[in-house]
Amino acid sequence: MSKTYEKYYVPAQSPWPIVGAVALFCIAFGAGHYVIDMSKQQTGFGGWLLLLGLAILVFMLVGWFRNVIDESMSGLYSSQMDRSFRQGMSWFIVSEVMFFMAFFGALFYGRVIAMEWLGGASNNAMTFAILWPDFQPVWPLVKTPGGIETQAMPAWGLPAINTAILLISSVTLHFAHTGLEQNKRGQLKGMLFVTLLLGVIFLCLQGYEYVHAYRDLGLRLDSGFYGNTFYLLTGFHGLHVTLGALILFFVFLRVLKGHFTPEKHFAFQAGAWYWHFVDVVWVCLFFFVYVL
Amino acid sequence: MSAITHEHEHDHDHDHKPTGIKRWLFTTNHKDIGTMYLVFALLMFFIGGSMAMVIRLELFQPGMQFVEPQFFNQMTTVHGLIMVFGAVMPAFTGLANWMIPMMIGAPDMALPRMNNWSFWILPFAFLILLLSLFMPGGGPDFGWTFYAPLSTTYSNDSTALFVFSVHIMGISSIMGAINVIVTIWNMRAPGMTWMKMPLFVWTWFITAFLLIMVMPVLAGAVTMVLTDKYFGTSFFDAAGGGDPVLFQHIFWFFGHPEVYIMILPAFGIVSAIIPTFARKPLFGYASMVYATASIAVLSFLVWAHHMFTTGMPVFATLFFMYCTMLIAVPTGVKVFNWVATMWRGAMTFEVPMMFALAFIVLFTIGGFSGLMLAITPADFQYHDTYFVVAHFHYVLVSGAVFSIIAAAYYWLPKWTGYMYDERLGQLHFWCSLISVNLLFFPMHFVGLAGMPRRIPDYALQFADFNAFISVGGFLFGLSQLIFVWVIVKCARGGEKATAQVWEGAEGLEWQVPSPAPYHTFDTPPEVK
């Protein structure tokens, strides 16, 4: 390595991508069989294959990220590389936004169009009169046309507290970032830790809310369109919070090891962007799923 | 395992290629990955094509001859899925991998390891899809559009495998698209400004954006199908407060941009080939860029033209009708520019040019039948008939597939270092051109006469046309064997190709030797 690495670093061969592909194969094939077996109430290899796939995925992520961190710490990455990573992460977040858009879109359509039409709006008077004349098109849809009844989740209890928790966690994460930029490592560590803690509290409260919904409100995944959108939106959001918390956890470990400088801290930045993104999704969720 | 230890020896020998199977499994080289994408797409083209042969065999005569209706449905479904996600999209991604870094003067793709990951997911995804055909009860049989409730209430057990295989295909596409977009944004050589980029790069840039926007929506759609079928949700079930039409909205919000994902790179290819063989610069470069961008924007506003017969309010159908027709304007700009490029050019007619010319004519036919379908009242008659099948095969086969074949002939000398066999290539072209029209043109007529699509049997009056169509189909399938022969022959040797290959070819990729060295640009070239 005679010259400085301002040239673009193209890594040599790597085993991790193919390991990752095998992992995704096991996950997809295993999950598919697991779901099929579950619907037929039989047991098979699906669940085990799924777990194996997840294990391989974790193994792959550890190995891949170890390579990347080693390369980064040994100064192989130019500022152009850094831009590639940042842009890649930004576009990944755009794709995640669109994933949530599919479910928000379903929610808006079901609530604004499908429900009204089932209640006879537009040119659907006969549909309503003949199929489900007793149906009341009111949101939250606590009684489906088919007659399944449930209760709505009120917004101004736990959900409002959870909103506050996530919003505060975004602020603490921001202070962790300014701490990193001003090289105040204490502030960085403390604020990052608080952020993580708030994330975990959020997840615990969310779990408690699910138990409460299932046990006390009779609000289940299969209790009609309201339950469907409620659980898929909050569920996928919860998965994303989990992923974001895991990213921040590993970033925290790296901070403890003394990684990151005020100038170069892509991993921290990416984790922070992801965290702010799940936060914004939650705010939309709070309004459209709980409040309105 | 660590990449760093190898870096030293790597520096000394730029053309050092790893050998054996590891080269392909572990590669981070955009050319290797591009080759794998292209070979995979060709393989899938033949697997999906053989399913089309089964369909045409059954439809050769009225009545039921060879296959069960349920198997016929599986064939139409998996044929569509394989051709869209396994053949056309990976072929374009392969071309992007090979050509974009060379065209913009980059050392490789921006994220080389992720590049390899996004390729290797694909064979596994299609393995799952093909294996599902052998499950008890059979594979997916609800059409590649998997409309609810066909895919929820009435689908067979293996649907979960279909769902998860589409999930990982989507992951692959999104990672591929992120790689392309970041490469183009961040890795252009000094002086390669936005408006100097070759149009293939521009069209892929916009395609990648579309992919990132819509593939996650497809993931959402299959997820809802999964939960509706297996977990008791009712997104697409009116009894639970949902709506089967909601499925169509979500699916086509993905599906219509997807159509442009499969044609915009084709525009880029044709915009590269026509100037080369007309020996004139492309007419109206800037307008081509803006036309591509406007098509991309409009593609998000037209999805419900697939759904005119679902009973949407009149206002909505009018909106989607006008937006759809609006797309004809930028598309017309493109066709005009290609023709204007050839105007008074010193033209020669090598195989890539022949396929590009056929593309312009036949794609335009497909575009026009698209305009007919865009007219709401007329669509009430055309909907779900063979007219639709004729329309989208004109734009996909004699459009997208022809452009991919043209690209393969155009760049094969750059990839292999040898010229392909021009005589065989011309034979391939003429066989393909004649048979593709035998195959798809009569479909317009049977469609207008009311023959429904996706049905294994038909009324007697369609018999002659269908026999004709099937013969065209078998001939088209056989013609593609010539293509394989040409490729294999070219890879094994032949006349040495020069760096420029084609007399009129311009651009960075024609300034490096043929075959292109394993690592093209160690230091970025200066673009004036």
Describe the secondary structure blueprint for this structure.
The complex is a heterodimer of chains A (292) and B (528).
Chain A (H helix, E strand, L loop, with lengths): L15 H24 L6 H28 L5 H40 L6 H6 L27 H24 L3 H33 L6 H33 L9 H26 L1
Helix pairs in contact in A: 1-2, 3-7, 3-8, 5-6, 5-8, 6-7, 7-8
Chain B lengths: L2 H10 L8 H5 L4 H29 L10 H36 L7 H21 L26 H28 L12 H32 L13 H18 L2 H15 L6 H14 L15 H13 L1 H15 L8 H24 L1 H7 L3 H31 L5 H27 L14 H30 L36
Helix pairs in contact in B: 3-4, 3-5, 3-17, 4-5, 4-6, 4-15, 5-6, 6-7, 7-8, 7-9, 7-10, 9-12, 9-13, 9-15, 10-12, 12-13, 13-15, 13-16, 15-16, 15-17, 16-17
Pfam family, one (chain A): COX3
Protein name (chain A): cytochrome-c oxidase
Main location (chain A): membrane
Task: Give a brief outline of the structure.
Chain A is built from eight helices and no strands. Chain A has 292 residues and is mostly helical. Chain A is globular.
Question: What keywords describe this structure?
Answer:
heterodimer; A: 292 residues; mainly alpha; Helix Hairpins; Four Helix Bundle (Hemerythrin (Met), subunit A); 2 domains; disordered N terminus; B: 528 residues; Cytochrome C Oxidase, Chain A; 17 helices; globular; metal ion binding (chain B); heme (chain B); transmembrane (chain B)
Notes on the structure:
The complex is a heterodimer of chains A (292) and B (528). Chain A is mainly alpha-helical and 292 residues long. Chain A has two domains: 66 residues, Helix Hairpins (Orthogonal Bundle), CATH 1.10.287; 214 residues, Four Helix Bundle (Hemerythrin (Met), subunit A), CATH 1.20.120.80. By secondary structure, chain B is an all-alpha fold. Chain B has one domain: Up-down Bundle (Cytochrome C Oxidase, Chain A). Chain B is built from 17 helices and no strands. In chain B, helix 9 packs parallel to helix 12. Chain B starts with a helix and ends in a 36-residue tail after the last helix. The interface between A and B is large, with 76 and 91 residues.
